Every structure is written in structure tokens, then in C-alpha cells.
Amino acid sequence: MKRAGGAAPRKPTIDWEKRIVEALGKAGSKGLTRSRLAPAAKPEAGGTLEALLRQGAVVRLGSASKARYFLARCAPTARQAVEAIDRRAAQSPARLFLEKELGKFCSKAEAFFLREAVQELVQKGILLRLTRGKTLYYTHREALGSRDRTEIRDFDPARVCDAYRALMEEGRILNVRILALASRAQAPLDSLKAWLLEESRAGRAHLSRGDWSLASEEEREAAISLDGQPHLLVRLEQRA
Fold first, then answer.
1. Region of residue 192 (phi > 0: left; psi between -120 and 50: alpha; otherwise: beta)
2. Which of 61, 70, 115, 125 lies at a CB distance of 3.0 to 4.6 Å from 31, suitable for a disulfide?
């Protein structure tokens, strides 16, 4: 409808900078996608968003198709991802994680720094990197068990290898139960499990699941979790 005099009413001008900043302020550390901030049908909104990025007032994380935007003061950091992974991984004794599983310990925003955070934790020795075949796993150093100095001093890898050979020859099998190995070697279980994980990392130990339904409670407690599954058995590479 025209006004008196024939002039059409003007559409109100949108202050896109104010709208974008307010929306991101409400979103906080969760951030927002581009479609929520600058609809494709509103090129002026996109231009404003790009200007805010250049000014450093807004931060963009992630690839173009999955990017999220944050106010600079609310943006997640690699440090937050490191702390989240460190804290949560330490709560799962002797468990091995895929990198993507470590990412579940982060918020969606912190997960943008997953690879960087994992690398930092490995470099600091907080996460141990293990391999099984071509698959890479991680475990927390504290999650291997509360090993005191006496246990560490008393643990003897050579004695474990001797015990493994004895069990292998007696049973005529290559895969022996981890609990039986600890008992024969008179090795602290936590120390043995930690050592087996290190040997697995080096390709000198190979874990097998075994039959969980036939395992005793003690044997189940001795199991090592790999890819979310408990492993009751181990085969050691024979050394010269």
C-alpha cells in the first residue's frame, strides 16, 4: 500500500553487524554455522561476516562445509581440548581409544582441535600411542593402573618372557591367558598390562579376545580393553 502522496514505505535497514554479534554472543562457545548468521539470500550479511572475520572480531573454525563461527572471546582453544581429553581418558583404566573416540571427550567446538590436542598429549607423554596391525590406538598413562615404586622395581620383563615360554610349552599353545602369565611370572598385574601395551605398540605382543563367557572374574579383571573389546589372551614374539 502506498502512503499519501504516492510514496511506497521503506523497508527497515538491517544492522547485520549488530545482528551477527548478538547471535554469536548468545551462542557462546557453541558457535553457529554460516547459514544461521548470513543466509545465502542476504549477500550483505555475508559481506558483513567476512569483514568481522578480517577484523578479528569473529573466528571461523573447520572446513568450509562444516565451519562454525564464534566471537573471538568465546572461541574454543586447543588447550581446552587437551584438558578435556586428558581428564576423561584418565578415567578409563587400561582402555585403548581410537582418535575419533578421544574426540567424543570434547565439545563439538573443541573437537576442531582434536588432532592438535592428541599430538600435544603424545609429545608430553600423557597419551601413549599403540598400534595393532595398521590401526592406531591411544591410552592414558594414568589409566594403566596405580603402579607404585615397589611394583615397578619388582617387574622383570625377562621373567615374563620365561613364564610365557613355560606356559606355551605346557599348553602347546601360542596365546596364553594374561592372568596366568601374571601368576607364573609373579608380576604385578597393572605393571604387566602396561608392559604388554608397550610391547603391542612395538609389535612384539599380540592381544586376542578369547572366550569371555568361559572366563572367571579374575581373568576378566586381567583383560586389556582394545577397540572397546576386552582381550584375555596374549601372544609374545619370541626373542633370540
1. alpha
2. 70
Kindly state the cell numbers that stand for 91: 578415567
Q: Which three cell numbers stand for residue 49?
A: 561476516
Q: Is 145 left (phi over 0), alpha (psi -120 to 50) or beta?
A: left
Q: Are 90 and 129 in contact (CB under 8 A)?
A: no
Cα distances (Å, whole numbers) of residue 57 to 25, 123, 164 = 11, 32, 62
Phi first, then psi, for residue 99 (nearest 5°) are: -60, -40
Partners of 97 in the β-ladder: 138
Q: How many CB atoms lie within 10 A of CB 178?
A: 24
Give the three-state DSSP class for 176: strand
Residue whose C-alpha cell is 593402573: 145
Q: Whole-angstrom Cα distance, residue 181 to residue 233?
A: 9
Specify the amino acid at residue 31: G
pLDDT tens-digit series, residues 165-217: 999 888 888 999 999 998 888 888 877 888 888 788 778 889 898 888 888 88
